Amino acid sequence: MISPIYQWNKARVRFSSRRRKLTNLPWTQGVILLFCVIVAMLLANLPATRDLYFEILETQLSISVMMPNGHGFIFPAGMTVEKFINDILMVVFFFTVGLEIKREIVCGELSSPQKAIMPVIAAFGGVVVPALIYALINHGTAASSGWGIPTATDIAFAVAILAVLGKRVPISLKVFLTALAIADDLIAILVVALFYGGDINFPCLGLAALFIAFVVWLNITGEKRPWFYFIPAICIWILFYYSGIHATMSGVVMALMIPMKPRYSKESFFKKCRIYWLRLKGSDDTPNPEGFPNETQQHILRRMSSTANDSIGMSYRLEHILSPWVSFVIMPIFALANAGVRISDPAYFNMFHYSPELGSVSMGIFLGLLLGKPIGISLASYLAVKLKVGQMPAHSTWKTLIAVACLGGIGFTMSIFVDTLSFTNQPLPVTDMLQDMGKMAVLMGSIFSAVLGSVLILLFSRPKK
User: Fold this and answer.
1) What are phi and psi of 82, to 5 degrees?
2) Percentage of the chain lying above the pLDDT 90 cut
3) Which helix (H) or strand (E) holds 66?
4) Which of 226, 262, 287, 460 has the highest CB neighbour count under 10 A?
5) In this structure, what DSSP letter does residue 356 have?
6) At residue 270, does pLDDT exceed 80?
7) Residue 25 DSSP symbol
8) Long-range contacts made by residues 397-402, C-beta under 8 angstroms, separation at least 24?
9) How does pLDDT run across 206-215, given as a tens digit for each residue?
10) CB contact at 8 A, 224 and 262
């Protein structure tokens, strides 16, 4: 008879294996994000949940600290559940994006001018044209500051659709879109840092610069222990939070300074492993009623594990550890908190509604994503090829490139994030209304871009054997 404990362990191992296989599928993250968007919209509009949904987001999380002299302060100032998600959890997202960008620049698709020039030029075109379309529609209105919303591409949804389409898309175009999205993220980060911060507090910014210089010095001296970087990272986040630059930028700054070189080289690793192996074999004589490993062997195995861990660069280790948490915890939470739009006016669904005073956030974002992205990416790519500064992706045509460029109009994550930072110069009711209309337009523009790109790929390409 099989014991219940054995059956439980076997079921747990089987579940863990299936979970890993599911999370490794490229379309899983996109499906989870879409599910969270639907749940957020329901929570924000169902009579039984809408009040509770927004009350939870507005719950204060700041800590009041009283000093012995009777004075006190609140830290962090103005922190709510929504700001906690957007200013703290999203720091981890931006940190992971920064690690990915650094990896691609050092040894990936952006590591040489020949590899980087085409997707970087395409990404630049995919940022400029949507921003121009939005600015032309909303120039001189209350919505004019939202020009950065339709400039971003969400790599999770785009890669998910490419995975579903399978062999109909050449691998070179998948690499092109991935590199383009990474370059696009870098441009979007610069846009947020330069145009969507508050009033600059120069003393805080100066202190942050000193901590950054200290981290650079640690990197130069070859320090590889994570705690020496973790503590300055917290200080830099606090100083960015109070400096007027959006706090998430601290994640990008720290990511670019994390060392990629491992603590032990290949030769050092093999040398240490040989020593540990000889010690492991020599410790067999030590009696142990529980069998292998005995106490001495456990110590040696821990040392071998630590050596193996330190033979991988800190940047790669952190990216490997954080990526699942970002993909399946932080991004779904962000979607649940930010995609919930209370639809109080049918005009939210009218993408072409225009007001002389407020402009048309919806039209600017919708047309920027649906038309501006593919036009900008395709036109910039065409100019790069004709001027011979870029090279067409292998086994692709202009039709398939334009079809894939349409997927660049999926701007979910970063577009909604920029939307939460826009329109803050308006009165609060106007700000909330413009932000809600912007989120709805992002969702509609992303859906239409995904459908258009998928249909064009099915029309213009044939499955490869």
Assistant:
1) -65, -45
2) 25
3) strand 63-66
4) 262
5) T
6) yes
7) S
8) 397/460, 399/456, 399/460, 400/169, 400/170, 400/173, 400/457, 400/460, 400/461, 401/173, 401/176, 402/374, 402/378, 402/456
9) 999 999 999 9
10) yes
Reported residue count of the chain is 465
CA 344 – CA 37 distance, rounded (Å): 18
Distance CA 11, CA 16 (A): 9
Confidence of residue 137 (pLDDT cuts 50, 70, 90): very high
By DSSP bridging, strand 72-75 and strand 63-66 are antiparallel
Q: Are 444 and 409 in contact (CB under 8 A)?
A: no
Of 118, 99, 321, 259, the closest CA to residue 189 belongs to 99
Please choose, from the candidates 461, 465, 380, 426, the residue with its C-alpha nearest in 3D space to the C-alpha of residue 173. 461
Residue 5 C-beta-side C-alpha neighbours within 13 Å: 0
d(C-alpha 369, C-alpha 407), whole Å: 9
What domains are there in the chain, each with its CATH number?
Answer: 27-49+75-89+116-196+344-460 (1.20.1530.10), 266-310 (no CATH)
Q: What does the alpha-carbon distance between residue 177 and residue 378 come to, in Å, rounded to a whole number? A: 12
Nearest to 342 by CA among 43, 83, 59: 43
Whether the pLDDT of residue 26 is over 70: the answer is no
Residue type, 232: P
SS3 of 180-234: the string is HHHHHHHHHHHHHHHHCCCCCCHHHHHHHHHHHHHHHHHHHCCCCCCHHHHHHHH
